[in-house]
Amino acid sequence: MKDIREYLKTQPLLFDGAMGTYYASRNRAGQRECEWANLSAPEEIAAIHRAYLDAGCRAIKTNTYGVNRLHFPESDCRAMLREAWRIAGRFADRAYVFADIGPIDAVDSTDILAEYLFVAEEFLKLGARHFLFETLGTDQYLSEIASAIRGRAPDAFVLVSFAAGPDGFTRDGRQIRELLSAAAADANIDAVGLNCGSGDRQTVELIRAIGPMEGLFSAMPNAGYPTVRGNRTYYEGDPGYFSDQLNELRELGVRLLGGCCGTTPDHIREVSKKLRMPTAVRIAYRPETAAEETAGPELEDPFWTALCDPARKPFAVELDPPDNADVARFMQGARELREYGADLITVADCPVARARVDSSLLSCKLRRELGMDAMPHMTCRDRNLNATQALLMGLCAEGISKVLVVTGDPIPAASRDEVKSVYNFNSRKLIRYVDGLNRTLLPNPFRIFAALNVNVRNFGVQVGIAQEKERSGALAFLTQPVLSPEALKNLQLARETLQGRILGGIMPIVSERNARFMNSEIAGITVDEKIIDRYHGADRQKGEDLAVEISTEVAGQIAPYVDGFYLITPFGRTGLVGRIMDSLRKAGLA
């Protein structure tokens, strides 16, 4: 075969379709991943390669999309990679053979890079020189992986493909234009593009919106949208329509074409016919009114202004939503806090993973009915990507200007049969997703706040996570309550390390029992024993007096390291929080 770079100078390169979905359609009784068929049914895999080649493709992918040691035992991984390469290599005289490597996910991010390098190294030993990294949601480690491949094989061709939904975001909350631009700028990456995530027409529209890009571009969309019947997924996109869309992609300058989920040899056959027809290539264009150019004027934000004022330390007060639909007491509490001088109300999102009145709806109600600045907490627990985007657009339309992004407490074990967590994101990914919407879709961007736990033992790790949150778009942090010398020390380190604004957490303790409960039952809170001892034998009034006294002491200790105070209302006692705010003002701390 001619060198692939020379081939692409004169004509587009047509890839095959989706091995996984096509294999499943041919083998309905099979329950194991199609990668096992490299070992158990090699002739079936060879027959699929042959069917795509006979349909007209000139590049095939090895049947190794999901092969890695985090998914299969190492000995099986090596055998699958070896056999997949051998099977595809039988057709090397007819097509370019690409080592196919899908996304690798792991809890420990260090495992991810090691696993990519392991799979790439195995392929290099087998003689692979064309690599496809596909269906990616992030560009993490791509530079290191591509550099390692080119270091071993300077003539290697590296294609990187991301999966984005029709909204232009990946499952990791990354904006696709940024990912493509970063990958295209890497000297060790030869081509970038899109696959999966969107159907054929949506991929055309995405590439139109992305605009001109340097270098080689690829597109391998799904064959339409999937249909689920009887717990099985079917793609029923029309091959003729699919070929029309890929021909339009060719006209937009895309040089590497193919298909992802649901793309059969019939689809590739129709595309091959279209590609043999002459066409006038048009360069993909950027719309005249890109989202980032149509952002509205920045709204006034008195709380943020105060937070940035060295002479002020504003109050953000958390008020828990009710566990029933009667919000009268909540609204009355908010009115009282407004009168006491709270600058911002923050509303928790179903704390302890128990259903309560929705934090976003309550925040909108506070703004509309009381004219109060409100910030809903937004967890990663209860919404998928679509629901998250819909909610953020609604909040933006209602004039909410801030969100606190947190991972959220897990569903209690006893409830997991009835209630399911979603967790499409962790907090860092969700922050990045909101930041991407800020820059591409929302006329009035959100200011993104994040949580900072100053009570963890290995606080250096927590600071690293916080720095990643800042890189993802977080502008400020609300800390967990500072009720121990260790927490104060950690807060000092955070002040020295982080760039964002910090609101120091103050949780009033109302009794000895309350303090011991927090120490034992509430994750992320540590109460110093010396503080607990002060409550021994105290009645309710004495407990509240101590809460004001100790909260004022804590505020004095943390004041040099914070830009504002984050007060957590205990048991709905807004009057107690009002006393604390008044005490802090009298002490000259706010």
Give a quick precis of the structure.
The protein is of the alpha/beta class and 590 residues long. It has 22 helices and 18 strands.
What this model shows, in words?
- By secondary structure, this protein is α/β, with parallel strands linked by helices.
- The protein has two domains: 4-285, Homocysteine-binding-like domain (TIM Barrel), CATH 3.20.20; 312-586, TIM Barrel (Alpha-Beta Barrel), CATH 3.20.20.220.
- It has helices at 4-10, 19-26, 37-40, 42-55, 74-89, 109-126, 142-152, 176-184, 200-210, 239-251, 265-275, 302-307, 328-340, 359-370, 385-397, 427-440, 459-472, 485-497, 512-521, 529-534, 540-558, 574-586, and strands spanning 13-14, 59-61, 96-101, 130-136, 157-162, 191-199, 216-222, 226-229, 232-235, 256-257, 315-318, 344-347, 374-379, 402-406, 447-452, 476-481, 501-506, 564-568.
- The strands form three sheets. It has an eight-stranded parallel sheet.
- The model is unreliable at 283-296 (pLDDT under 50).
Descriptive tags:
590 residues, alpha/beta, TIM Barrel, 8-stranded parallel sheet, 8-stranded parallel beta barrel, 43% helix, elongated
Beta-strand proportion: 15-25%
SS field, number of helical segments: 22
- The CATH topology label of the largest domain is TIM Barrel
State the low-pLDDT regions, or none. 283-296
Tally the beta strands: 18
Helix content: 40-55%
Strand order of the largest sheet: 1-10-7-6-5-4-3-2
Domains, number: 2
What would the average pLDDT be, to the nearest integer? 90
The SS-based structural class is alpha/beta
Shape: elongated
Second CATH tier, the architecture of the largest domain: Alpha-Beta Barrel
| CA(first)-CA(last) distance | 74 Å
User: What's the CATH class label of the largest domain?
Assistant: Alpha Beta
For CATH, the homologous superfamily of the largest domain is named as Homocysteine-binding-like domain
Radius of gyration: 28 Å
The largest pleated sheet is described as: 8 strands, parallel
